[in-house]
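agent> fetching stored inputs for the zinc ion docking request
agent> found them:
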Amino acid sequence: MVTRADIGVIGGSGFYSLLDDATEIEVTTPYGPPSDVVTVGRIGSRSVAFLPRHGRDHRFPPHRIPYRANLWALRSLGVRQVLAPSAVGSLRPEVGPGTLVVPDQLVDRTSGRMQTYYDADGVVHVAFADPYCPAGRAAAVSTARSSRWDLVDRGTLVVIEGPRFSTRAESRWFTANGWTIVGMTGFPESVLARELALCYTSLSLVTDHDAGVETGEGVTHEEVLAFFATNVARMRSLVTDVVAALPEERTCPCGSALDGLKLPFQLPD
Ligand SMILES: [Zn+2]
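agent> prediction call returned; pasting tokens
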């Protein structure tokens, strides 16, 4: 029975399970319970923990997801590398539905979300110039390329507060800034991963064009879920292959993100 894991997968909209023959683990954290029970199992030789970001019944909207509990729970199970599939809107006409974007940059347009573990007793500033793990990105890009995905390697993910979608003006503004995709969950998930010295890689699946690119009424939640549901098998297979492609030993900078900083508490092992 597997009860610890090296790799964590946080499933997005429509992506509520990953592992066959998995152990369900109820994890408690100082930040309350995570979105759901964590399932831990094996993919090939790698041990993997899976957590559905919105809960299995999709009960948490993006602004209410217990992000701190989720990342803490994964780390406390042994996870050091996180893959984060999610549904996003495209800000570019040439990046259509079904494209996989592996972003290398992020713009935070959320508000009012708790985005740090270090909000008491001492000052901890983590570096976040490059929000994503270079090794995780490389594994995702080469895997997607060899399985013939429409792929955008690099790009900027803008994370909006939601739960509403963008206005046309916001969407045009994002596009004019050169940003690539828009989503609601990539932050603070990514920075919390960094604050726990975890590797974090976003696997962003484009489900539709955002309001400023689209000529119709813009997207609906039903359309996003329906699109993701039809693509979830592809995403599951991609995640499975990326898990196998992740390095066993971490040589990326993520693991030393907290070196030299004085932490107010011990990180979970
Ligand atoms: Zn890393």
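agent> quick read of the result: The longest strand covers residues 199-209.
agent> awaiting further instructions
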